[in-house]
Task: structure prediction
Amino acid sequence: MNLTSAELRKLVVPLVLTLALLAAGTALLGWMKRELVRSNAQLAAAKTERNQSRGRLARISDEEREVKERMEVYQQLDQAGILGEEHRLEWADAIAHIRTTRELLDLRYRIEPQKPLVSVPGKPANVDFFASTMKVDIALLHEGDLLAFLRDLRDSGNQYTAVQRCSLVRSGASQGTLLSLAPRLRAQCEIHLITIIDRAAKPS
Result:
């Protein structure tokens, strides 16, 4: 099909417009692809930041819970009198009270000088554990008296009680007579009375 010069001149404008539209469309597609890539990158960055923020919030929440738990433990230890210097007078009063309440007529004890406990795993650097070893010699009617004494000593507070060893021997009193009311057992125990000193704590 042959076109005349006049017809060709009429087609020039539509062809130019078509080429311009094609070029504009190509440029628009390229721009849209770049914008899509940039948007995806921004979305990925926002997701990463959101995940990091969630992780930080989770860590903060865990740290707050851990601090709260430690504070509760600290307050319990403080209320029990375990924190701070040893309480020898309170210990003596507690043992005297146990002796009277349990009617332990023959109870002898000795508390040795306080010594640091060096084998406490995971302890904070500013916290020190100390043990005052108490050696007890006590006459008993039966084994239950020893358990009651140890329980009362533990519940008296002002220390954490850790029994290291106890030995029981028969005292030789016979049964079936009035001597049956006399102690028939003798216990010798070694007990650690443990206190905790927090060097970072402010004096009250």
Q: What stands out?
A: Residues 1-79 form one domain. The CA atoms of residues 12 and 153 lie 110 Å apart.
